[in-house]
Design goal:
By secondary structure, this protein is an alpha/beta fold. 42% of the residues lie in helices and 23% in strands. The protein contains 8 helices and 6 strands. The chain has a 6-stranded mixed β-sheet, sandwiched between helices. It starts with a helix and ends with a strand.
Length: 235
């Protein structure tokens, strides 16, 4: 056992260094974001399990699950949309949480490509012109790192109109961040609404309607400006 641990420790310093460097570089990029650039952090949250306030025993073992994808979006503010402008001399970086809800529980490259498309459409709808997109994801092969994902990445510029597209992968086991807390917050608030009897959430459409009506705005003290909700339709 000790021989095995000693072998693992040989690679640990490099692993720790890469994780620290990646975190530092992402924070520096967000704080000094060039005009026309955008940073997104993608991650799948655990599926939301639909519950009832007064459920029968059999429904406990057959809960409908809804997929929830979280994107933390860092961009320059738009005067018409955010109420203030952002320039190279005086930067105003806006942080938003972008949620994509889908009844399909298959978390694959089709889902992530749909998320990318929805993010691109949202940026165009608010007249936020993006020339360079920086993506940060974990190393999950089926969602972000397989040959199919790389195929989608190779067409990102032509699909979404970017001049340059960059995808960065977090070091293994170091992809935790605000995206995890954001997904947990949505699911917790949905559960509380069901327990209190104020809402009935039994499908992806119910979760979307509840979240969009009640969770879009954030507190003034929050670092997140707003929450945006969308439904991904793959079929």
């Amino acid at each position: 056992m000790f021989q095995y641990l000693k072998k693992l420790l040989e690679t640990f310093p490099a692993h720790k260094f890469r994780a620290y460097l990646q975190s530092k570089q992402m924070k520096s990029l967000v704080e000094n974001l060039p005009i026309g650039h955008c940073v997104t952090v993608h991650d799948f949250s655990e599926n939301y399990k639909c519950t009832e306030q007064n459920e029968i025993q059999s429904s406990y073992f057959q809960k409908l699950e809804v997929s929830l994808h979280v994107t933390i979006l860092h961009r320059h503010s738009v005067l018409e949309y955010d109420g203030k402008d952002s320039t190279a001399e005086e930067q105003n970086i806006v942080t938003e949480q972008f949620f994509v809800i889908n009844p399909d529980q298959k978390h694959d490259h089709h889902y992530t490509h749909c998320v990318q498309n929805l993010v691109s459409e949202y940026l165009k709808s608010i007249n936020c012109e993006i020339s360079v997109m920086h993506e940060f994801t974990d190393g999950c092969s089926s969602q972000y790192k397989s040959r199919h994902c790389m195929g989608d990445v190779s067409y990102s510029c032509s699909d979404f109109g970017y001049a340059k597209f960059l995808r960065n992968y977090f070091e293994t086991s170091h992809a935790r961040g605000p995206q995890d807390a954001a997904g947990g917050f949505i699911k917790k608030q949905a559960d509380l609404a069901v327990i209190r009897g104020t809402h009935v959430i039994q499908s992806s459409s119910d979760l979307f309607d509840y979240a969009q009506s009640n969770l879009s705005t954030t507190a003034d003290s929050s670092k997140c400006s707003r929450r945006i909700f969308s439904i991904c339709r793959l079929r």
